[in-house]
Fold:
Amino acid sequence: MEQAAASKGKGRSILDAIMGNPLVGLSPWIVYSIVEGKGRLELSAAVALGIALIVLIINWLRGYSPKMLEFADVVYFGALAIVVAFASAGTLSWLELWGGEVANIALVVIALGSILVRQPFTLQYAKEDVPEEIWGTPEFLRVNYLISWVWVVAFGIEAASGLFGDAVLDNSNNIWTGWIIQTLPMIMAAQFTIWYPAKLEAVREGREETAPGTRELLATFTPWITVIGVLTLFMGGAPEWLSIAFIVVGVLLTKVLSDDKDPNPAPAG
Structure:
């Protein structure tokens, strides 16, 4: 199936592009983290399992081999749904408190485990976007090891942040440990996953002048500084002056980083 998928090459549809993004495989975890909370454990597990099954079925119908991450989604949330259905009141109470941290740690184990068995989980997504003859090249493998490591670090930060919020602050809804610090690493990892292969492809094809640089990567991060300012301004979690500073700095940095290219570059030579 993967060979048939890869043969589609440049003619990928919008659905192909969406389903070939690792964020799709992570979508059950993202939704679970948003929905889960006191009194919503059964709902969050059921919704996450439903999304995991839908993703798996869509890829099967498209003729693509199911990916390791998608299988892990179904196994984890299927097991969680069974545990929730038959667990005692004490176990349910424990899962309501620590379920988010358990999920974050599970993601670290899945991503790190894929590297240890020499099958980085991003590899199956990347294969859908490049010709088959590139799959075994050292550069292709090296890129996917690096990107998978970036995701491992992101998941590790999320797990540490959630654990600190629950174990130390005793507040799972703290805007910093429960939301901002847990969300930003995933956003940054997703942007790096898009940016780094695009940069290498441009260099490989001799288009160094059009290759996205570090400045372009940073320009995808800076708008989130503004978002942090807006969130803390209206939801609390920081002094008003600090929230306003986040907004101003985010807007200015985004403008500076986005206006760096000359719209009318001089011709070469």
